[in-house]
């Protein structure tokens, strides 16, 4: 395969364009709107620990904010506030909760520019993608605002005795919500909105690397009319210093976690001590399967979305490209040609389509995975290097000829690196795809509709994109199997995670 001439990306992060620097005063005004404290019982307060932590812009390495860092005592105060209003909140009419969520949807939409800029500043994604996340994240507020009014039970008769049977859905009670850094708004709305809709109170712990968006979102929920104590926010330097005391407290009823599988496993073990309801949205290792009859241009377009959205830092990101041997050369050439067109740089700059990694450790991890693939015989078609200078950048990369023993096949890459592997038969594609402990997203490109059902039978994944590289939506039940977790977020199923079912057997009237 001849791919010479595809080696260099355009790089915009050191160019200091006027467009970015012209926005500095606007950035300062925006950052001044973001509360730095902990949200406890409707008030933004300082931490009892007296400690703070810094938030950096990954495109420059500069500190952009200093936040209050919560400890165990703050965490329990936040849980106290949630517990104090749980009963009253559960009794509010569903319509009232629904309308708060609707107002929150409208406010987040009005503040789209602010939310998008905050996410680009603290996490690095290109501004246009951050706008996409605002739309996606806000949709959970609208969707669960609508679902709040439909939290109904069932009515039936016991078939043998004929007595009436009722079921009710009740709020599960105070929840701990823990979110990751990669989608700072959407991962918060995906949990907060169904919890509010169901009538639960909560403590939210956002990620240390990206607390700003969650803080501004919490303020927006207050502005939308959410009563004090329903949503409390405590983030800080040490995640377990916050989560352990809350999870050990008998008043907590549920934990909903989105993050890596190893942390999810620790939290599951911890949750067992208090027999907590759990929802776990964990890591992924998505196969992206291209059959010989696929429309290759559509597959490349889908691959760009599935791999490069969010700089590859998505749990749904295509991790392993499995391509039929008869089209692998053509697909690889077209994909590499599309990748080389990406403009790497500061996500706030015009035209940038690939931002920085979230921190230096992430760049080191990706570099290790690529070096491992190359050492085992992999060939770099494009990219394959760190970008020197300020910020945490790695070139978008395509690798072919690496064996499946390579770490890029086994591990979640979480960056803009696309390894491509061949297969010859449908059965082999399914076997390779399932050869992972993960089971979140999968993608299949083919023009044979019968294959859709056969592949959905064979693939052990909670999500499947058929001729589509981006499938997340508030109306869809999102979640994984195997080590990718349990429970679903979004859709009608998303609210059930925050309810418990009560059955009432009524005295036989006959
Ligand atoms: P992470 O597991 O390191 O952190 C996630 C959250 O857990 C953060 O708030 C962190 O502070 C907290 N945390 C870390 N250690 C903890 C501990 N011992 N106790 C309590 N909380 C702890 O994950 P990350 O790096 O923030 O996010 C990336 C991971 O998240 C990837 O594996 C990705 O696949 C996964 N993810 C999954 C989904 C999904 O829906 N399945 C969505 C987004 C991200």
Automatic annotation (TrEMBL):
Alphabetized InterPro entries for the sequence: Ald_DH/histidinol_DH, Ald_DH_C, Ald_DH_CS_GLU, Ald_DH_N, Aldehyde_DH_dom, Aldehyde_DH_Superfamily
Pfam families from the UniProt entry: Aldedh
Superkingdom per UniProt: Bacteria
Domain Aldehyde dehydrogenase intervals: 44-503
Protein name, entry field: Succinate-semialdehyde dehydrogenase [NADP(+)] GabD
This protein's UniProt keywords: Oxidoreductase
Biological process annotations from GO: gamma-aminobutyric acid catabolic process
UniProt-listed Gene3D superfamilies: Aldehyde Dehydrogenase, Chain A, domain 1, Aldehyde Dehydrogenase, Chain A, domain 2
Record-listed E.C. numbers: 1.2.1.79
Entry annotation: catalytic residues: 281
UniProt organism field: Corynebacterium kalinowskii
Top-level EC class: oxidoreductase
């Amino acid at each position: 395969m001849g791919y010479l001439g595809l080696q260099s990306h355009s790089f915009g992060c050191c160019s200091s364009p006027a467009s970015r620097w012209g926005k500095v005063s606007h950035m300062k005004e925006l950052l001044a709107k973001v509360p730095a404290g902990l949200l406890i019982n409707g008030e933004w307060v300082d931490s009892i620990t007296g400690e703070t932590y810094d938030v950096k812009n990954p495109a420059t390495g500069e500190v952009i904010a200093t936040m209050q860092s919560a400890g165990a005592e703050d965490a329990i105060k936040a849980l106290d506030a949630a517990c104090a209003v749980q009963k009253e909140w559960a009794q509010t009419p569903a319509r009232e909760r629904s309308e708060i969520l609707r107002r929150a949807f409208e406010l987040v939409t009005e503040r789209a520019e602010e939310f998008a800029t905050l996410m680009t500043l603290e996490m690095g994604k290109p501004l246009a993608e951050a706008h996409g996340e605002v739309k996606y994240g806000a949709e959970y507020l609208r969707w669960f605002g609508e679902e709040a009014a439909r939290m109904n039970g069932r009515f039936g008769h016991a078939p043998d005795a004929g007595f009436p049977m009722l079921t009710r859905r009740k709020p599960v009670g105070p929840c701990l919500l823990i979110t990751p850094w990669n989608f700072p708004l959407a991962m918060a709305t995906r949990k907060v909105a169904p919890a509010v809709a169901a009538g639960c109170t909560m403590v939210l712990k956002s990620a240390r690397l990206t607390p700003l968006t969650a803080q501004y979102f919490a303020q927006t929920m207050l502005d939308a009319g959410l009563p004090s104590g329903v949503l409390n926010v405590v983030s800080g330097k040490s995640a377990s210093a916050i989560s352990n005391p809350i999870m050990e407290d008998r008043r907590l009823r549920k934990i909903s976690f989105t993050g890596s599988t190893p942390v999810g496993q620790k939290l599951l073990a911890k949750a067992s001590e208090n027999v907590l309801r759990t929802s776990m949205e964990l890591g992924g290792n998505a196969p992206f399967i291209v059959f010989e009859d696929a429309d290759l241009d559509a597959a490349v377009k889908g691959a760009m979305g599935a791999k490069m959205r969010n700089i590859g830092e998505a749990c749904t990101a295509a991790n392993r490209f499995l391509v039929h041997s008869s089209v692998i050369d053509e697909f690889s050439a077209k994909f590499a040609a599309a990748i080389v067109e990406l403009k790497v740089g500061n996500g706030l700059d015009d035209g940038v389509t690939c931002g920085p990694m979230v921190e230096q450790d992430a760049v080191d991890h990706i570099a290790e995975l690529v070096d491992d693939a190359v050492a085992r015989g992999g060939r770099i078609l494009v990219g394959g290097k760190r970008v020197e200078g300020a910020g945490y950048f790695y070139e978008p990369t395509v690798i072919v000829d690496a064996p499946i023993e390579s770490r890029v096949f086994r591990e979640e890459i979480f960056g803009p690196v696309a390894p491509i592997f061949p297969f010859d038969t449908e059965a082999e594609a399914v076997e390779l795809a399932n050869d992972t402990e993960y089971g979140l997203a999968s993608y299949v490109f083919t023009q044979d509709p019968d294959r859709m059902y056969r592949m959905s039978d064979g693939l052990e994944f909670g999500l499947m994109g058929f001729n589509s590289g981006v499938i997340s939506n508030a109306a869809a039940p999102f979640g994984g199997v195997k080590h990718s977790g349990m429970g679903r977020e979004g859709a009608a199923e998303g609210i059930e995670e925050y309810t418990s079912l009560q059955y009432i057997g009524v005295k036989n009237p006959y």
